[in-house]
Design a protein that fits this description.
The protein contains 7 helices and 9 strands; from the N terminus they run ααβαβββββαβααβαβ. The protein is an alpha/beta fold and 195 residues long. The chain is globular and about 55 Å long. The N and C termini lie far apart (49 Å).
Length: 195
């Protein structure tokens, strides 16, 4: 008998509800076929049983506001090498924008201008300015590109930077410091941010 068969669901799966991964259909499909495929990782949508899985997927429609748990989420397309979205997330009290991998984009910032009580933008910056060519091909941000994007964003909203390649952390930090002072902050690991 396998360890999974021996394990009672309440012991192996203490959550009462499955963990939900909400994303665009191409991302959900990629996770199902390339990761949670019983080859790379088990298909947790069927474990410990199909009736009580650890994981479930919730496909989101692009550019449509949808309820995900207690939050409203609107995926807005951004400019990357694979289908990618930035997310406008709010709870009727405050809102934030989170965009993972992206190069310069317009649709997200246009949508951002319509958001009430926007408290922060969380944005990636993967490369320093000297690697602008690589950032362009990979469709990632540099401090100079972020400087240009600031003009498209709502005024006076703090911009928190993440996805900084560790080997470029200090260099990117210096370059971001020259961009706009207090408006841009690099996210610190193990620090809690409240919006």
């Amino acid at each position: 008998m396998s360890a999974l068969q021996q394990c009672a669901p309440r012991n192996c799966h203490p959550r009462r509800t499955p963990l939900t991964i909400a994303s665009l259909e191409p991302v959900v499909t990629a996770l199902r076929t390339s990761i949670f495929n019983d080859t790379v990782w088990p298909d947790f949508t069927k474990l410990p049983s199909p009736q009580a899985p650890v994981l479930r997927f919730e496909p989101l429609r692009e550019d449509v506001e949808q309820r995900v748990s207690h939050l409203w989420v609107r995926p807005v397309p951004v400019n990357h090498t694979v289908p990618t979205s930035g997310f406008i997330v709010h709870d009727d009290t405050s809102a934030l924008i989170y965009s993972g991998d992206t190069g310069p984009t317009d649709a997200l910032w246009k949508a951002a201008r319509e958001v009430r009580r926007l408290r922060a933008v969380i944005l990636e910056c993967a490369f320093p300015n000297r690697l602008a060519g690589l950032a362009d091909v990979a469709r990632h941000m540099t401090p100079e590109l972020i400087r240009r994007e600031l003009d498209k964003m709502p005024d006076d909203v703090p911009v928190l930077i993440f996805h900084v390649k560790p080997q470029f952390y200090d260099e990117i930090g210096e370059e971001l410091g020259a961009v706009s002072g207090a408006r841009i902050t690099m996210i610190e690991q193990d620090k809690t941010y409240v919006f």
